[in-house]
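Anyone up for a design puzzle?
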């Protein structure tokens, strides 16, 4: 079987055709024969994995049941219509399946007497065991389960069903493909690698993933294909890393007067050991003549910004400019304020470049940048992505790097100049994710907080204790401290949420007439926002009410209370970030989570985690567990690879092996020139190298 055949358009495969091909491509990106072979079952059905309906009990773990549709009906309901289906188990027993959405479609999908497999979590309502919006497959194959086979179930959906792409027809299509073409695929990996990692042969694995004879065989096939998927990502990272090692970067001098003065005279404190180590890493990297690609990881408040400022001054000492990039304009402005304070005593001025600036002002700044009169430019990521010209850009600092993916890094990398890259993140990343997202970077950890910090005390409160919460707040204010009150902002309903924040603001003003209550939200102009923020910073405002715009980077050490309204609506990392706004001095600080009693299971876990720990690592592990890897960073935003079969959070062992294999390979044969690597190289070039590194592209 040739590479050509694998690249063939899937529409020419028997049983597919134009219409199905279009839908398949849209829904799952299946375009070529290869894509088809790698269109993996989402689950398997066999006798051993089915729970008899009679033995159902409430369980958070999903189960699979099989039975016959006994009746279906649309139930009017008080506020919302729903579709209910009664299923009779093969060996007796009945259960209910309920849908609140897509009623029209599901009603069409089932008829009395249909044989169906349902998959979902079981809850008990009244006397009924019930699944809500279960995943399902119609078992039209003649008694497919009686043959003792393991039956693959494929990803589906309405569009797929509409053109007849059901698990059944997909099975047929793939089965025929194997039968007709034999699919004598050649092994991609060199023999040594297959042996070393004890992998199932590629073609055997592909057949077994679709049509396993035994679960053990399926498991081995799965391991092979996961390995393969992760291997190519690691190969790409290994290549990037190698290439980077060959890229020349500006060669900085020893840190000069500006750097020394900043560290020893301007800063009112001594750097922590961890800050010193990170700074030393950066200083060393920037003097080698090779481009630096370093990630600085440290919890909120660990003092990353200070390290970045020292690095930028080091650049300036060496005759280079720096760019400082933040994920949002508000944060850019916030950093601008901070940087001004740091740089002013040195007689330097940073420049801010954001949207909404007057054209003349912008033109002037761009001119100053291009002519090298500006030591430090601050802005959003647009700063480097647009055609902003620097005279001599020596260092690019990217704050909150977790929102900035591999693909975007590659974009910067493609630009002509190769400034040193200093990436900063407050999200402690579990190792498996770090290996995938940042596998091409060097990492410095700031794992030590500035001295005297006390962990923030976190409390969960319901509405009926609001009086108590306000009394506590008053007590803090009387001691001269300040507070944040944060409201959630959901994009789709900005207006509603704004109203929330506005009425909260009015309410607090009424409750605390003798204090100054400020308001800041996303729909204010940047001048208004700046104004409110600086009044808060100067202590003119005592309570700052805001939507989540203050999420990261804001620094007001005298603020010791973070009150979060509707805390159940926030993500865990976001809650942790918000909490990081307090606890920035030697005063005891508090985080109060106001939450409705009615909480989803996930919300409950998030709030409990917040109360349980202030450790950023534990928080992010929990977050990852609750949400799964896909959501953790958001594929689109972060450049997380879009994985078909491997799960980065689960398959850490395979990931480690794949990484070892890929890095060893690149070390021994950097350009994959050896004969035994020819197929591997072709596969890599065909599937990964061209289309933007095979990673989800951003913007
Ligand atoms: P991060 O960016 O990691 O969240 P920042 O750089 O904003 O943290 O620092 C948080 C706060 O801690 C700031 O008020 C900063 O001035 C202060 N800070 C930073 N380093 C130290 C240190 N070594 N000792 C005392 N305070 C520090
Ligand atoms: Mg910061």
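Challenge accepted. My sequence:
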């Amino acid at each position: 079987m040739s590479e050509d055949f694998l690249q063939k358009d899937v529409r020419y495969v028997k049983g597919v055709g134009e219409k199905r091909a279009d839908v398949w491509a849209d829904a799952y990106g299946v375009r070529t024969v290869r894509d088809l072979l790698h269109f993996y079952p989402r689950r398997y059905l066999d006798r051993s994995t089915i729970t008899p309906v009679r033995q159902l009990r409430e369980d958070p773990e999903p189960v699979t049941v099989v039975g016959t549709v006994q009746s279906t009906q649309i139930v009017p309901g008080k506020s919302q219509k729903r579709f209910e289906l009664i299923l009779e188990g093969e060996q007796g027993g009945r259960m209910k399946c309920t849908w609140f959405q897509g009623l029209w479609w599901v009603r069409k999908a089932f008829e009395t007497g249909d044989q169906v497999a349902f998959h979902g979590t079981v809850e008990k309502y009244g006397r009924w065991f019930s699944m809500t919006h279960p995943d399902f497959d119609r078992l039209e194959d003649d008694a497919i389960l009686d043959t003792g086979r393991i039956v693959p179930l494929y990803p589906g959906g309405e569009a797929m069903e509409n053109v007849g792409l059901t698990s059944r027809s997909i099975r047929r299509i793939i089965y025929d493909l194997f039968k007709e073409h034999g699919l004598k695929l050649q092994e991609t990996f060199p023999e040594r690698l297959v042996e070393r990692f004890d992998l199932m042969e590629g073609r055997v694995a592909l057949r077994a993933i679709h049509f396993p004879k035994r679960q053990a065989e399926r498991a081995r096939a799965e391991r092979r294909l996961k390995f393969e998927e992760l291997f190519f990502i690691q190969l790409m990272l290994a290549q990037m890393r190698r290439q980077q090692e060959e890229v020349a970067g500006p060669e900085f001098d020893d840190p000069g007067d500006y750097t020394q003065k900043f560290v020893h005279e301007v800063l009112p404190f001594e750097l922590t050991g961890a800050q010193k180590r990170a700074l030393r890493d950066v200083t060393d990297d920037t003097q080698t003549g090779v481009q630096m690609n370093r990630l600085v990881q440290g919890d909120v408040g660990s003092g990353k910004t200070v390290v970045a400022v020292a690095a930028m001054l080091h650049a300036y000492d060496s005759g280079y400019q720096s760019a400082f990039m933040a994920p949002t304009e508000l944060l850019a402005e916030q950093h601008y304020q901070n940087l001004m304070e740091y740089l002013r005593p040195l007689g330097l001025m940073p420049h801010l470049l954001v949207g909404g600036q007057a054209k003349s002002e912008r033109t002037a700044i761009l001119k100053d940048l291009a002519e090298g009169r500006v030591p430090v430019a601050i802005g959003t990521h647009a700063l480097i992505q647009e055609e902003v010209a620097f005279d001599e850009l020596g260092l690019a600092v990217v704050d909150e790097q977790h929102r900035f993916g591999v693909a975007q890094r590659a974009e910067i990398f493609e630009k002509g100049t190769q400034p040193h890259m200093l990436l900063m993140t407050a999200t402690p990343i579990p190792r498996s994710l770090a290996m995938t997202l940042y596998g091409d970077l060097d990492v410095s950890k700031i794992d030590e907080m500035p001295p005297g910090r006390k962990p923030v005390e976190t409390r969960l409160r319901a509405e009926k204790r609001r009086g108590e919460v306000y009394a506590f707040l008053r007590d803090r204010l009387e001691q001269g401290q300040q507070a944040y009150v944060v409201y959630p902002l959901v994009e789709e309903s900005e207006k509603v949420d704004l109203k929330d924040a506005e009425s909260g603001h009015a309410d607090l003003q009424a409750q605390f007439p003798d204090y100054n209550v400020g308001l800041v939200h996303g729909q204010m102009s940047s001048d208004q926002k700046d104004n409110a923020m600086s009044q808060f910073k100067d202590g003119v405002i005592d309570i700052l009410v805001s939507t989540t715009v203050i999420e990261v980077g804001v620094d007001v050490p005298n603020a010791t209370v973070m009150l979060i309204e509707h805390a159940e609506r926030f993500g865990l990392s976001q809650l942790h970030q918000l909490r990081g706004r307090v606890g920035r001095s030697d005063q005891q600080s508090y985080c109060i989570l106001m939450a409705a009693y009615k909480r989803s299971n996930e919300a409950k876990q998030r709030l409990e985690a917040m109360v349980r720990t202030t450790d950023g690592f534990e928080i992010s592990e929990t977050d990852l567990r609750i949400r799964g890897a896909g959501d953790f960073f958001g594929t689109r935003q972060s450049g997380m690879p879009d994985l078909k079969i491997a799960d980065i959070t689960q398959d850490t062992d395979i990931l480690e092996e794949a990484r070892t294999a890929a890095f060893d390979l690149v070390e021994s044969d950097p350009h994959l020139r050896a004969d035994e690597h020819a197929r591997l190289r072709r596969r890599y070039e065909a599937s990964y190298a061209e289309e933007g590194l095979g990673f989800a592209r951003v913007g």
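A detail worth pointing out: Residues 186-246+653-699 form one domain.
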